[in-house]
Amino acid sequence: MDDVKIVLPESEMPSKWYNALPDLPTPLAPPLDPQTKKPVDPDQLAVIFPRAVIEQELSPERWIPIPQPVLDVYRLYRPTPLVRASRLEKALGVKCKIYYKNESVSPAGSHKPNTAIPQAYYNKQEGVKRIATETGAGQWGTALSFACSMFGMACTVYMVKVSYNQKPYRKMLINAYGGEIFASPSEMTRTGRAMLEKDPDCAGSLGLAISEAVEDAATHDDTKYSLGSVLNHVLLHQTICGLETEKQLAMAGDKPDYLVGCVGGGSNFAGLILPFLPRKLAGENIRMVAVEPKACPTLTRGQFRYDYGDVARLTPLLKMHTLGHSFMPAPIHAGGLRYHGDAPILCNLVDEGLIDAEAYYQTDCFDAAKLFLQTEGFLPAPETSHAIKGAIETAKKAKPGETVVFLYSGHGMLDLASYDAYMSGKLTNFDYPEENIVEALKDCPVIG
Amino acid sequence: MDDVKIVLPESEMPSKWYNALPDLPTPLAPPLDPQTKKPVDPDQLAVIFPRAVIEQELSPERWIPIPQPVLDVYRLYRPTPLVRASRLEKALGVKCKIYYKNESVSPAGSHKPNTAIPQAYYNKQEGVKRIATETGAGQWGTALSFACSMFGMACTVYMVKVSYNQKPYRKMLINAYGGEIFASPSEMTRTGRAMLEKDPDCAGSLGLAISEAVEDAATHDDTKYSLGSVLNHVLLHQTICGLETEKQLAMAGDKPDYLVGCVGGGSNFAGLILPFLPRKLAGENIRMVAVEPKACPTLTRGQFRYDYGDVARLTPLLKMHTLGHSFMPAPIHAGGLRYHGDAPILCNLVDEGLIDAEAYYQTDCFDAAKLFLQTEGFLPAPETSHAIKGAIETAKKAKPGETVVFLYSGHGMLDLASYDAYMSGKLTNFDYPEENIVEALKDCPVIG
């Protein structure tokens, strides 16, 4: 009988990350300084990022060694299992194989620690005492506070106030790891105080929380800033998912025909697919399917152009599929997928026609999550439910014997209120009117 | 470098449970009919339990095969990892080895599915359509609703009302698995209605919830009852934990000097230690340490005598260490450890001097959990924190090179409110006054 879980021995855990930058068919458009519209000088970034991370962001090297102390923490939960979802296949009546790469087994419950751990490590190496970051739904803040606790560092999380109030368990978990957390806008920063003065009841936004975390880092010598998605070095760290998957499929005697993942900023999906890019470019028929919510259809309906990463226009300009940095996605439960842009590396590949993108309504994704729960037993995060929906639709179209692999990015133990809303029929589906997107895109800078 | 996680291949997963009954140095005292005080006739139990389970409860066979459909569901999460807690060892400065058997990786987040799955299966085999049960903190109700969903059965959970209101996520998770859940006392049973008539604001108790679930099963032809701890068949199913541990220690070239676990009804601890009983009886120096809360010190301060399993005196009389069935433990956060009695098999072994018992205050257990979280990364359930505290104290006394293994029974993702109370200094420690125990024991029946 075939194994349900393909378990990679610890000795086989990858010791290098794969950097896709040198393999992109078209070179990546550089990040631009928001003032001068010229490529960003790496030295400018050193105020908020450690040198090692900046080097990785721009590195031309295809393979980057994973430091031993990072491997040591990875080994608390890695290698993660690749699981054959036989019971789901049976329920669907499909003749293809479905596997899922289970990143929910990390201490923080998602793939996010894969980059939080090296980011904490590199900061520690360079004498940084504290890392500041923002978090929306809370997954990233949890992962970074976990990673900081592993290296004995302080961690400050600015959490969008509306989520801070809605999700008290996230705050408690971040506190348990020793992290401090503030509802954003907060009294801790000039930006926060100014906003509170203007509007004491301001519910906050991810853009505002980014501004607070960046200001905190820029104004304290011992503190740097950390981002949990979008940037090249984050995607680099996540490639350990795909590298392990490649070895595990080989152990099972399989090859991937379809790779599926959900996309918010794009790091979990990129982590799965990028290691397979060289094989695809060499002619292997591997289809890569990015799944996003119809309420935030960045890859399916956005424009590929330079835009700001945040509402407040503080970040460098990135060339990406965007719905406009002033776009306000509807309040869907997959909070991690509510981002107006996407990782530039992914957008580059979508533009090249190497990645397919699909968008689904949230109730259809919860239906898929429920089927997964009642067949495979595990409770997926709302973000992950999009990957499951995409995998199911892919499996229905796949030929007998083909292999569908999706990335199971996180569990839903702290998202049960979303399931309750779904089960009691309270969920609304959202399309986004074309005119709103057009309006938001008017704010985008016009480059070159 | 040694592996952090000792992973047993699926092909090595035990295919039989170990039944300790024939190996007990002193035969187990039989359960008695609460009316006649004579040994219970197995036929009486058939109203609420399936035949296969009743047979296992009394079986003289040392090895009992695990049915293939049960193995198929076990394989969704089993074998579970045995993990070397090197970072915890280092933080403690101990020279012994500490391992933990991680049962939190199951879909329900605890060891409970190990018995929920076979119980659901045996009921299904005998044509039962629905299983009724009670749950206190919610772990057991979650596990049974998960198991029922795997076999396409209905599940009804009576959850103690005070917990039902305090822990809304448990209810949502049980619903997500397709289970129905009622706050107990409920309008669904005669017992519940009678209680509500007397006291509409009754907060409920585990004893009352048991009564409702038993009545539900006894009054519906297609419905049986299921219990998540204490009884012999439950401990039997949990032995898969210890059987795997034995193989995993052998893989690592180690032998256990200390086996540690927390005890509520006793099923997780028994699951770990019972498979090592033959080796201990053969003279191997394996010390077995049962850890309980000082607020509910059943093994350390209870009397070994016949008592009822529930407040309402509906269950058979069991010979066990008891604080008296009318004993009301203080409201500690480890809800799963608040039981006046313990599994008869464990109590038998404690009485023989084969198991040591220790009791700790809850704040000391949370301190231990925090150290575990900040070294090993994972968030333990409050019940599990007692096992961690016991393992730490054991490790401090162990000789260099000795091996301490503890059972990590569940994660604490749905117990974050308890951590919040702990971190904000709101936790109280409870001793239980001797006179209260003496008073509660006056209610116990005097046998023979």
Jot down its keywords.
homodimer; alpha/beta; Rossmann fold; seven-stranded mixed beta sheet; four-stranded parallel beta sheet
How is the topology of this model organized?
The structure is a homodimer of 448-residue chains.
Chain A: E1 5-6, E2 16-18, H1 42-45, H2 51-58, E3 63-65, H3 68-74, E4 82-84, H4 86-92, E5 97-102, H5 113-125, E6 130-135, H6 139-150, E7 154-160, H7 161-166, H8 168-176, E8 180-184, H9 190-198, H10 206-218, E9 223-225, H11 232-251, E10 258-262, H12 267-273, H13 277-281, E11 287-293, H14 298-301, E12 303-308, E13 317-322, H15 344-351, E14 355-360, H16 362-376, H17 382-397, E15 403-408, H18 416-423, H19 434-441
Parallel strand pairs in A: 5-15, 6-7, 6-9, 7-8, 10-11, 10-15, 11-14
Antiparallel strand pairs in A: 1-4, 2-3, 4-5, 12-13
Helix pairs in contact in A: 2-11, 3-5, 4-16, 5-6, 6-8, 11-12, 16-17
Written description of the protein model:
Two copies of one chain form a homodimer. Chain A has 448 residues and is an alpha/beta fold. Chain A has a domain at 5-11 and 66-109 and 232-441: 3-Layer(aba) Sandwich (Rossmann fold), CATH 3.40.50. Helix content of chain A is 40%, strand content 17%. Chain A has 19 helices and 15 strands. Chain A has helices spanning 42-45, 51-58, 68-74, 86-92, 113-125, 139-150, 161-166, 168-176, 190-198, 206-218, 232-251, 267-273, 277-281, 298-301, 344-351, 362-376, 382-397, 416-423, 434-441; strands at residues 5-6, 16-18, 63-65, 82-84, 97-102, 130-135, 154-160, 180-184, 223-225, 258-262, 287-293, 303-308, 317-322, 355-360, 403-408. A seven-stranded mixed beta sheet of chain A has the order 1-4-5-15-10-11-14, with helices on both faces. Chain A has a four-stranded parallel beta sheet with strand order 8-7-6-9, sandwiched between helices. In chain A, α2 (51-58) packs across α11 and α6 runs parallel beside α8 (168-176). Chain A is globular, with a radius of gyration of 20 Å. The termini of chain A are far apart. In chain A, 60% of the residues are buried. The model of chain A has no long low-confidence stretch (mean pLDDT 95). The interface between A and B is large, with 41 and 41 residues.
